[in-house]
Specification:
2 copies of one chain form a homodimer. With about 190 residues, chain A is mostly helical. The first copy, chain A, has 9 helices and no strands. In chain A, helix 5 runs antiparallel to helix 9 and helix 7 packs across helix 8. Chain A is elongated and about 60 Å long. Chain A binds a DNA duplex (30 and 30 nucleotides) through helix 3.
Chain lengths: ~190, ~190
DNA sequence: ACAATTTTGGAGCGATCGCTCCCGTATGGC
DNA sequence: GCCATACGGGAGCGATCGCTCCAAAATTGT
């Protein structure tokens, strides 16, 4: 019926995600996007409506990929605290200085754009749930204190993750971040 | 010898700080700044050279005011854990959705601008040192475990603060943040 | 009062912003 | 083959960007 598009939408969204991740939403121009995605503006605007539309797609893509990676890492067998430490280490082991797209977006756009906010909150929820599932397992197996306040511990660990990703974005020494992670995991078991 | 300027530089920087704080660096235009500061562009550029110059001044101003406030709160007498909790609560008790200028800046500009980075790092150091001083006092008075790994605890608490400020910026429920703070303080004493 | 100096007020620079429209082209169903 | 449809390519829209320059106004030392 019509000429098929010459680009893979998923691939384009993935590359756009990388650019928004590094540069932020406001600082990323549509021409910059066009160059990075090898996509003319007419195609970009027909496919994604506008810059914000592409950004929302990027947020969705980020959540989907991060979520699957997080779940994969968390379903691994092994000592709960080691799994947790590896997971946290992986969280801050991104390409240097990228931080987390969701954290960057939450601080850049704050609570201004409700549609963006819904996405950042959904992404946060993925992390939170992944943590809860792991801690619950730890309590079941006795690797974590039975009297652990699960909700509070999840909340605190989640907050710690956000802080770690800010620090990673800020270029803090990976060794220091690793030490912080070690201590956080140790504290969790202390109760 | 010459006509005196009609604006108070400190006041102008303070107001610019508020605007950068809410909107971020990139999204804040010089005309917007001019309107908020009641300052014509010619005056602005003569006084601060350019937009970035004013932003650097804003970062300095923020650090100075926040630092003095933090030190004031931390020199208060009283139980260490209560002082810490009050301080953390104050940290996230900003005007809703503002978060922390330094955290917002670190995630927005990352490690791109070395001059900015020096400032964010200096501001982080203020927080870190304030925490260290308080925890040290807690160890001295016996309010905190004697075997506390001071450096690690400071690092983790500092990371938690960053996370809390991200969450405040993201519009999370203040009650949840308060609960997170309570738990963090409790964990600190557990060792 | 006068000259020197620095201010305010504002027009306007080139560049870039997000976005739209048009055109020639390639691909589908009939 | 033919028309409808969506495509890639690109010019260009109005608006805003950061920034500069200049004239009029205001304050000082002499």
């Amino acid at each position: 019926m019509a000429r098929p598009r010459e680009f893979d939408e998923q691939d384009v969204v993935a590359r756009a995600t990388g650019l928004f991740w590094r540069r932020g939403y406001t600082a990323t121009g549509v021409r910059e996007l066009g160059a990075e995605l090898e996509l003319k503006q007419s195609s970009l605007y027909r496919a994604f409506h506008d810059k914000r539309g592409l950004f929302l797609r990027a947020l969705d893509h980020y959540r989907a990929t991060e979520s699957s990676q997080a779940e994969e890492l968390l379903e691994r067998p092994g000592p709960v605290r080691e799994v947790l430490r590896d997971w946290l280490t992986c969280m801050v082991g991104e390409e240097a200085g990228r931080g987390c797209l969701v954290v960057n977006t939450a601080t850049e756009l704050g609570a201004t754009d409700p549609e963006v906010r819904r996405r950042t909150e959904a992404a946060f929820e993925v992390t939170r749930r992944a943590l809860e599932s792991l801690l619950r397992r730890g309590c079941r197996t006795g690797e974590l204190p039975a009297g652990l306040d699960l909700d509070a511990a999840v909340d605190l660990l989640f907050t710690t993750v956000l802080g770690l990703r800010v620090r990673e974005r800020a270029g803090h020494d990976p060794a220091r971040l690793a030490a912080t992670i070690d201590y956080a995991v140790r504290m969790l078991a202390a109760q």
